[in-house]
Specification:
five-stranded antiparallel beta sheet; 198 residues; six-stranded mixed beta sheet; 11 strands; mainly beta; 44% strand
Amino acid sequence: MMILRKGLLAIGLFLSLPLACQAHPDIAITLKVLFNLKRGVLTGIGQSWTFDKAYSATLLARYDTDRDGALNEKEILVLRNRLMSDLRRWRFFSRVEMNGQRVARLEPADMQITLAEGAVTVVFAFNLAGAVDMRGQTLTLDIHDPDYQAAFRLAADQALQLRGDDSTACRIFEKPDPDRPYFAGLITPNLIHLQCDR
């Protein structure tokens, strides 16, 4: 396995390879996103990451210490603490912007980990460090690994969801941003847009 970010090397989840071997992502993550609104203010963001089965097997091999083919509460806690510590340093590969400027830092409120049908899913609940008034505004959420060791792709079903009393006044959609390529300019990011009426 390749390194997801350099900071994750310490937890032994990935092995580093020369850049020439890293032209394609080694990990596929199926993504779902939930925006929570209250009276026109964005109050939280949820993200669900489902790892591909090959990488899930790597996680299971490392953290299933009793070798029963599952993750018990103790094993989940060890994995949760390690992921939370390391991903926090890289801001969970997420950037929240409005008008091209970062508007809020994501503060993890909870993390749940499950294993089903051979795939590990990590669900994050994020609070926002500061209120974001969405009335008449468009917000973008950029989720990507700049080293392109992991590739995020929206789920085929119910990938983008809105919840809250103002959800009918807002729209959510994904759109590529060719002006912000990464990984030596080879990859065009797909940004998630939350657009709300006044």
